[in-house]
Amino acid sequence: MAHDPQMLKGVLSLLLLRLVGDHDDYGYALVVRLREAGFTELTEGSVYPALTRLESAGLLDSRLVRSAAGPARKYYVLTTAGQSEAARALDAWTTLTANVGRALKTRNPS
Amino acid sequence: MNVIDRARIMGATVSYDLWLDFAGMPGRRRRDLRRELRANLEEATALVGSSNAVRGLGGTREMAAAASVPDAARPRWTVGFAVGISFLGLALIAELLAALSWFDGVIAATPESRVTGTLTFFPGSSLTYSPSASSFGISIGFGWVCFFVAFVAFVLTAQPWRLLARHAAPPSH
């Protein structure tokens, strides 16, 4: 089933912080990892700006790594502030999904 | 990667860069983002082809808007330059067409001596028609109006007075 673009936009930062937290990676590789995780409709046009904003906000840092295939790749690294934000966003997401789940159960007990 | 692939990637990166500039992204940061986008597009091109790689970006205007934190204190130099050059070209073409009309009128009158004139809407311009025994010569001085129009377009678009706001309130980071 396709994801709601607005909902996806809301959790994209959390997803990116978690993926980069797992291991440093560059833009297109992160797009591929997100698609492999099931977000098949996710476009590069939404991931790259999100990475740029996270970097501007100091939640991600970056380093250039030479590539034999072409120009140097820009690998993103999670900063300390990014770790804190990822933990906070995960808590917020967990709380939200729990509350939504409870509300839906109350609405439709069957 | 063939020439078409490279052209597609270059087109997307240039377009992205222009929209980033329009959104107020500083030059050094734009260069970084341009390099990053090119590297990502080349990577994607190797896997899915340049057409799909560029299509995956969607609109570069929306991408740039999403990537930018608007900086109201930064003049838009590149956009101003592009608009200024465009206005210069248009003004020169308009003046050239007006001059050709003037020359057509003069030639139709078949004057026997040298004729000089100016174009009403282009102060500072000078037109000269010089007949000789078997032919004629013409010369055009474009004057300053075209450059003035281009300069005004550049200033209005680039908005250099934004620098005053920058001096008044330094950026937070």
Please tell me about this protein's structure.
- The complex is a heterodimer of chains A (110) and B (173).
- In chain A, 63% of the residues lie in helices and 13% in strands.
- In chain A, helix 1 crosses helix 4 and helix 2 packs across helix 3.
- Chain A has a three-stranded antiparallel β-sheet.
- Chain A is globular, with a radius of gyration of 16 Å.
- In chain A, a hairpin with a 7-residue loop joins strand 2 and strand 3 (73-78).
- Chain A has helices at residues 5-22, 27-36, 44-56, 80-107; strands at 25-26, 60-65, 73-78.
- Chain A starts with a helix and ends with a helix.
- Chain A has four helices and three strands, in the order αβααββα.
- Chain A has one domain: Orthogonal Bundle (Arc Repressor Mutant, subunit A), CATH 1.10.10.10.
- With 110 residues, chain A is an alpha+beta fold.
- Chain B is α+β, with helices and mostly antiparallel strands.
- In chain B, helix 1 runs antiparallel to helix 2 (27-48).
- Chain B starts with a helix and ends in a 5-residue tail after the last helix.
- In chain B, strands 1-2-3 form a three-stranded antiparallel β-sheet, with helices on one face.
- Chain B contains seven helices and three strands.
- The radius of gyration of chain B is 24 Å and the shape is elongated.
- Chain B is 64% helix and 12% strand.
- The A-B interface holds A 26-29, 31, 43-46, 48-50, 52-53, 56, 67, 69-74 and B 32-33, 35-40, 42-44, 46, 53, 56-59, 62-64, 66-67, 69.
